[in-house]
Design brief:
Layout (H helix, E strand, L loop, with lengths): L2 H28 L2 H20 L3 H20 L3 H20 L3 H20 L3 H20 L3 H19 L8 H19 L3 H20 L3 H20 L3 H20 L3 H12 L10 H21 L1
Helix pairs in contact: 1-2, 1-3, 2-3, 2-4, 3-4, 3-5, 4-5, 4-6, 5-6, 5-7, 6-7, 6-8, 7-8, 7-9, 8-9, 8-10, 9-10, 9-11, 9-13, 10-11, 10-12, 11-12, 11-13
């Protein structure tokens, strides 16, 4: 194929992609599920083709388009269309993992978090649960494969969904809250066992942020569950001599104990205190090097999330 023909083909492909993206958004505005489904199917096929051809920037554009269609569908109350967007992203995730396309994989994982967070904010519980469950499964796989960046992306997504769920006035320790805590706890334990210290610290940071959100809503049982998860991750990290992860676990538990006490969440404060006492005394001494490292990890996570919006 001549260069001119290739350019013409690329231009036609781009026009068709733009047409399908517009179809997706227009169909959402009209409440037309079939149009959204058609657009998502097309974008998924094109995205998969780009991944198979190792065209990662083009594939990531398809991911962004599907994510934005998914978020728009949530805001329009179109549950089926949103679920279809998540399923479309799952197909791209499997392909990007097969092709070892880390950038696209991370982008897809963060997209699950973005859609799930929006769904939680709109009290679309089924979608939030689906996004969290997909992330939980993906996080376990990434951690077992020692994929640090992918694992951190999952942790961010789960944490953002978890924080959004706790702010929605659901019953204390709702099913979605429990799923996010459980998934983060499982990933945290695997990262500690696999010596993925930055990812383990990331899990602890997100759980601490979830605890802060839960305390704002006086969700005492949620805070207790989070404290238990942080303790378990910290104890696994202690066995692996992961100093930063142990330090963050004890630091998070100290913060939860203090803040829960000040809000008269006595059971949660006591649970954090008991968890804290299970660590060796030297583990809870503040250390500037630990603080600096944890802040670096926090900034990496913040930058990843901001870039994914």
């Amino acid at each position: 194929m001549s260069s001119r023909l290739r350019e013409s083909y690329a231009m036609l492909s781009k026009l068709e992609e733009d047409k399908m993206v517009n179809l997706g958004f227009n169909s959402i505005n009209e409440g037309f599920d079939e149009g959204v489904s058609r657009a998502l199917n097309y974008l998924t096929v094109i995205g998969t083709g780009y991944l198979n051809e190792k065209k990662e920037p083009e594939a990531e554009k398809m991911v962004v388009s599907i994510k934005e269609i998914g978020k728009a569908a949530v805001l329009q109350g179109m549950e089926n269309a949103t679920v279809n967007a998540i399923r479309a992203l799952e197909k791209l995730l499997h392909c990007s993992m097969e092709q070892n396309m880390q950038g696209t994989t991370v982008s897809v994982l963060l997209s699950f978090g973005a859609i799930g967070k929006t769904a939680a904010e709109q009290q679309m519980e089924v979608v939030a649960k689906l996004a969290a469950s997909v992330l939980g499964k993906s996080g376990n796989t990434a951690a077992l494969l020692n994929q640090k960046r992918e694992t951190i992306a999952v942790v961010i997504g789960l944490g953002e969904i978890g924080k959004a769920v706790t702010k929605m006035k659901f019953p204390d320790l709702s099913e979605n809250t429990a799923i996010c805590i459980s998934c983060l706890g499982d990933i945290g334990k695997i990262t500690a066992q696999k010596s993925l210290e930055e990812a383990a610290v990331g899990v602890e940071l997100m759980l601490q942020e979830m605890a802060a959100a839960a305390m704002q809503e006086n969700l005492q049982n949620s805070v207790r569950s989070i404290a238990s998860s942080i303790e378990e991750i910290g104890k696994n990290a202690e066995e692996e001599n992961m100093e930063n992860a142990v330090f963050q676990a004890t630091s998070a538990l100290q913060t939860i104990m203090s803040n829960a006490g000040s809000r008269y969440l006595n059971d949660a404060s006591i649970a954090a205190k008991v968890a804290l006492e299970s660590f060796n005394e030297f583990d809870v001494i503040n250390d500037e090097a630990n603080i600096k490292k944890i802040e670096e990890i926090r900034e990496i996570m913040r930058a990843l999330w901001v870039d994914s919006k």
